């Protein structure tokens, strides 16, 4: 499976941004879909996940600000990011897998200025 993330950019604190990740293949609805990020000089960290059974889970740092959603008809998962903070600056990666998240996209850069 191949993943293509898009939607990153430079925004100001408080702005919103929507990331998208298109997944190749015909079994998108059978995949767990997740978003992760890596800030400069930091380890990669979990952001949000949409389990294939419909459950959703967020990291505490983004809960209430970010929303993950999936469009099974378009093989796409989105990450709506509101009230962005400078500490949200990172390369954002989408990941997919039927059991574990073992396929990764190339990442899209989000920069939030103060």
Helix segment tally: 0
Q: Which segments are poorly predicted (pLDDT under 50) over 5 or more consecutive residues?
A: none
Order of helices and strands: EEEEEEEEEEE
How helix-rich are the residues, as a percent range? under 10%
β-strand percent reads: over 45%
List the helices and strands and how they pair.
Elements (H helix, E strand, L loop, with lengths): L2 E4 L2 E4 L4 E7 L8 E7 L5 E7 L5 E3 L7 E6 L4 E6 L8 E8 L5 E2 L3 E6 L1
Parallel strand pairs: 2-11
Antiparallel strand pairs: 1-3, 3-8, 4-5, 4-9, 5-6, 7-8, 9-10, 9-11
Structure description:
The chain is mainly β. It has strands spanning 3-6, 9-12, 17-23, 32-38, 44-50, 56-58, 66-71, 76-81, 90-97, 103-104, 108-113. The strands form 2 sheets. Strands 2, 4, 5, 6, 9, 10 and 11 form a 7-stranded mixed sheet that branches. A 4-stranded antiparallel sheet has the order 1-3-8-7, with no helix packed on it. The protein is globular. The protein starts with a strand and ends with a strand. The relative contact order is 0.33. The model has no long low-confidence stretch (mean pLDDT 95).
Give a concise summary:
The protein is mostly beta strands.
């Amino acid at each position: 499976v191949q993943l293509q993330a898009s939607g990153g950019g430079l925004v100001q604190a408080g702005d919103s941004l929507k990331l998208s990740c298109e997944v190749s293949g015909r079994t998108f609805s059978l995949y767990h879909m997740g978003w992760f990020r890596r800030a400069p000089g930091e380890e990669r960290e979990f952001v949000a996940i949409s389990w294939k059974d419909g459950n959703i889970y967020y990291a505490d740092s983004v809960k209430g600000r970010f929303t993950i959603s999936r469009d099974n008809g378009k093989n796409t998962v989105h990450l709506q990011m509101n009230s962005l903070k400078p500490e949200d600056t990172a390369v954002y990666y989408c990941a997919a897998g039927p059991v574990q998240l073992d396929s990764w996209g190339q990442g899209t850069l989000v920069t939030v200025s103060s």
